[in-house]
Automatic annotation (TrEMBL):
Gene3D superfamilies on file: P-loop containing nucleotide triphosphate hydrolases
Protein name: Sulfotransferase domain-containing protein
Family designation: Belongs to the sulfotransferase 1 family.
Transmembrane segments: none
Species in which this protein is naturally found: Patiria miniata (Bat star)
Protease is among the record's keywords: no
Pfam family, one: Sulfotransfer_1
Positions in coiled-coil regions: none
Top-level division of the source organism's lineage: Eukaryota
Domain (Sulfotransferase): residue spans on this chain: 58-319
Cross-referenced SUPFAM superfamilies: P-loop containing nucleoside triphosphate hydrolases (SSF52540)
Sorted UniProt keywords: Transferase
Amino acid sequence: MDKYVTLEEYKGMMQMMRSMMAQADLPPRQKPVVDGIVLPPGNDQIVSDLKNFEVREDDAWIVTYPKAGTTWTQEIMSCVMHDGNLEEVNKRHTVFRVPFLEFGMPEPALKMKNMPPIHKIVAEMPSPRVIKSHLPGQLLPPQMWTKKPKIVYVMRNPKDLVVSFFYFTRMMDRSQQKQAETFGDFFDQALEGKTMYGPWWEHYLYFWRKRHEPNILLLWFEDMKRDLRGIVEQISQFLGKNLSAERLDAITEHCTFANMKKNPMANPDTLIENAGGQDTGEKASFMRKGKVGDWRSHFTVAQNEAMDALIKEKLHGTGLNVNCN
C-alpha cells in the first residue's frame, strides 16, 4: 500500500474519512446491510467485489470480530512472518504490513492519490501476504474455503468486547449523534445483534464450528493476556515458522500491550489526529486499555444479567464457553 501513499498521507485520508462520517447528509447511523449484517459505509460494494478476490494458499489471515484483539494479533503475525526481524518490522506501519481488506477509504481520498481501493491493492501484493478482516465468515472471499490459507481467529469475552467496541465507534465517528449515544444505547444494539459486523455470537460460531480444520487457529484474548509468550510460539508454529527461543522472546517483548501502545509503527493511534476525549472524561485511543474484566466498571446489574441470558441462549449446546470473569 505504501506504493501509493505515505504514512502521513494515509493519516490525512483517515481524517478525511472521519470528517465525512460526521458531516454526511445521510444519518450517521445509516449503514449498508448485506445478508442481514450491518457493515461500514461502502462495504456493500467491497463485499460484492470480494466474491472474485483471489485468495492464495500461502496467505496468513487474521480474522476477528472488532475489538477482540486484532491489532495485537496482527502484530504478532507480522513479526513472525518477518522471521522475528523487528528492525525490518519497525520500518513500516502495521496498516501497510497487514492491510485491512475491506477498509473503505472515501472516494475523494482515493481520487486525490490516484489510489485503488485497498482490497485491490491487496490483490497485487507479493506473497506471502498477511491480511486482516472483520467480515463474518459468510462474507469473506469464497476462495477462503477452497484455497484454505492459514487463518488465525481471535475471540474475547463478549462483555469486554462490547465495552471496547463502544469506545471505538465513538472515536471513529465524531458526529453529534454518535457522541450523544450512551453506553446503554450501544449495549442494547449489541444485545440485538445490530452493531456493525452483526451479532458477535454468529461471528464467533462460524469459526468455532470450523475449529478442527488444520488451517484455522482459534485463540482467546484472555489467553494472550495470561501467556503471551506461549501464544507467540503457538502462532509461529501454526504459520510454519521454526523460530529460535531468542526470536520468540524478542517478538513477545515487542508485542506486549505497553510496548505496542508506545510504538508508532504498531499503534493505529498514530493515524488518528485529535481523537479527543469523551464525556466519560476518558481520552480516545485505538489501543485503549487491553484489560480483562473492564466490563465491571460499565455494566449495570441488569445489563450483566441480560448479557448472561443472551450468552446462555445463543451458545447453549454449541460447546463454546466464554469466560466473562
